[in-house]
Structure prediction request, 596 residues.
Amino acid sequence: MRDKRRTDLIALAALVCTVVVLLLANRYLDDYKIRIINLSGIYVTLGLSMNLINGFTGLFSLGHAGFMAVGAYTVALLTMPIPMKEMNFFFQPIVPWLANVEVGFLPALLAAGLISAFLGVLIGAPVLRLRDDYLAIATLGFAEIIRVVFTNTQSLTNGALGLKGIPNYTNTWWSWGVAFFTIWFVSFLIRGSYGKAFMAIREDEVAAEAMGINLFKHKVLSFAFASFFAGIAGGLLASLLGTIDPNMFRITLTFNILLIVVLGGLGRIAGTVVAAVIVTVMMEALRFLDESINLGFIQLKGIPGMRMVVFSIILILVVLLRKEGLFTRLKGRESSYAEN
Amino acid sequence: MLKIENLTMKFGGVVACSSFNAEVKRGQIVGLIGPNGAGKTTVFNVITGVYKPTEGQITFSPREGEQHRLVGLKPDRIAQLGICRTFQNIRLFGQLSVLDNIFIGNHLRLRSNVFSSVLRLPGYTAEEREIYEKSMYLLEKIGLQDFRNEKASSLPYGMQRRLEMARALATNPKLLLLDEPAAGMNPQETNELIGFIQEIKEEFDLTIFLIEHHMEVIMEISEKIYVLDHGVLIAEGSPGEVQRNEKVIEAYLGVG
Prediction:
C-alpha cells in the first residue's frame, strides 16, 4: 500500500516534469527535434500496448504493425479534407461513403482505436487459442495480410500510392497526452484484479484456469486493449508524418516496438517508457552510422541500416544478460529462501 | 455431492482409468490412494475438466437439489461451480507476490467489469477491499502474513504447499481436491497438515477429496477410501476395511 503511494508520487512528478519539458521544448527547439519528441510519445504508447500482451499477459504477438496500419488509415481517411481526398484518389475514386467525411482529430483517433480493437477481437478469437511461437506466426501473418489488403484496395486506401496531405494535428500535447493516458490506463489495469488475472495467465495457464479464470475471455480482453492503443498510436503517427503508404507498416516497425519492450523489460511500465524515449532518440542520434564517416586519415563508406545492427546487438546482449530489462532493479534476489 | 460413474480415460492405447465409480458425500473427507501410476491424478484432471474422459459421467451438486454434469465443461467453469484443487507438482504464480497469488484466487467471484477496475469506481474498490481483507485473513490462517510481499517462487517448499491451499480456498470452493498435500513433508509438518485440513473443513464447510501417499494422513482423516491400481478400482471402504483388504496389500507390497 505504501509502495503504491510512492509510485503514484513518482508518476505525478514525472508528469509535471514532462509538461515543463514539453513547454520549454515547444518554445526553444526546432521542428526536427519536436518531431523526435512526438515520436517518443507515440513509441511510449506503442511500447506499453505491446507490453500489455507480450509482457503482462505472456502472449507472444507480433501483429502491431497491422493494428497501427488500421489506425493510421482510419485517421488519415477521416481527417483528410474533402478536396484533398479527390486529389489523392486520382487513379480510382474513393468509395462514396468516405468521400464526403471529414471529422475532428479526437473522434478520428477514437474511431482508429475502436476499429483496431474490434479487429483485434475478430482476429484474436481464432488465433489466441494458439500458443507461443504459433501465435507469433499467426499475428505476424495478420499484419502482413493487412498490408497486402491495403495495397490492393485502391478505392479505399489508394493502394500502393499511399495517402498524402493528411492534416498535421499531432503535436507534443497530443502525442504525450495519449502516452500519459496509456501509462495511466495500463498501470491501473495491471494494479486491479483483471491485470492480476492477466499475469496469472502468463505465469501458469493451467493453474489460472483451475482458479476459475476464463483464459479466452481474458486473453481477448488484453488483446483488444493492446490493439486499441496500437490503433491510436498509428493514427497519431499518420497525422504526424502527413504521408502514409502500406509499406511503412512492415515487420521492421513491429521489431522496433519489440526492441523497446525487451529493453524496458517484459511486464515493466516505467522501463518501457524510458526505453521508448531512449530508443527513439537513438534511432535519430545513430543516423551518422548509416552515412559515410570521415576519420581524417580514412574515409569509411556508409552502410544504410548500420544503426539497426547496433540495436540488434543491444537486443541480443539484453536477452542474454539481463532478461529483466535494462532499468529493472534486481530486488528480491537476496531475500529468496529456496529457488526451485 | 460428487458422483463419478463408469469413468474411463484412455490416452491412445494406455488406459489410465477404467470404469471407475466413486461418490463423495457432503461434508466427508474421502481419500484416493494407490501405487504410483495408478491413475489418481488422472481422476482429478478429469473432474476439473483438464481432460475429457473417454467415457463416463460426473455429476456435481454444490447445493441440495442442484445438479451439474461436469463432463465437457471447461476448467474455469468447473472452478466457478465450486470445485477447486491443488496440484501434485505445485503450480503457483511464481513471479507474483504471495498476496497476489491469493488475490487472484478471488478473481472468479469478481462482479465488477474491467472498466470499473481501471477507473476504480466505488463498486470495484469496495469489492477489492473485501478481497484484500479475505486474502489477508487466509494468509494469517496459513501463517504467511509476514511473507505477503515475497515472490511465491522464493518460498520454501512447505510454505508453497500451504499457499496453494490458501489460493484454492480463496475461490470459495464447496469441494476441495488436494493432490498429495503432504508430499515432501516431515512427520511434524504432516501432523500440522492433518490438523489444518480438519480445521479448514469445519470453518469453510468443505467437502474434501484427497490423493495421498502418506498412509498416516489418509488413515487418520478419511472417512472413506478408494484404492486404485493400474486404473482399476480394487477396493473401497473405511480405513480399517481397506487396510485389511488383501488386494490392497498385494498392490502395495507385490505378490510374494
